[in-house]
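Progress report, Aim 2. The chain analyzed during this reporting quarter is listed below.
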Amino acid sequence: MLKKIILLLLVVVSAQAYSQKYLDIVAEKSCDCATKVTEDIKTQEGLLKFGMCIYDAAMPYKKNFKKDHHINMDKFDEEQGRKLGTLVAVRMANFCPDFLVKLGQAYNEGNAEEAVPAADTAAAYEEVAVEPNPTATGTITKIEGTQFIAFTLKESNGTIATYYWLYAINSPEKFETTYLSKLNKAATIEYFEQEFFDAKTKTYKLFRVIASISF
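Predicted structure tokens for the chain:
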């Protein structure tokens, strides 16, 4: 009985860790971006740039943030910004602790310029045009893969592209158990592009990653 309980807990923890992996991706990208504004972090402009680093990194996962943390990226305001910033900053400590230390020092030493009013911060976010993820509509002509599943979609204009299932997909059905039945079915795929290392070409390439799919 105890073994079953332990096994169940491990399954739950593993599922939660997988579903939240995008937070680490957002945090790492935020760190990569934020380190470029390290010298300006004591200024109002630098703080705004830092906020935009997090915002831009989080946008491809806006549906995940809305579902898992009730953060609406399409109606971004002061409250949403505070929740997103706090959530991502905690994860950033794993990737760029030195930057976070400098950020804290900027406040503690009182060297930063006058703090950016919350209303101004929200306005800065609102000025950013929130572009929806691109979509493609066509017929699924191929489903393949072992570690990661890839869907080949042929559009009506003859365009053929491959879309990768790397994260939890927003779908109206239990997609994990029905995806193989979608071969030769019409579908609309919402996706975003993400750079990964291609072992075949030994270079970094942009891959189309599925955000949601409907039939």
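Residues 135-214 form a domain with the OB fold (Dihydrolipoamide Acetyltransferase, E2P) fold (CATH 2.40.50.140). Confidence is low (pLDDT under 50) at residues 1-19, 111-130. These observations will guide the mutagenesis work planned for the next reporting period.
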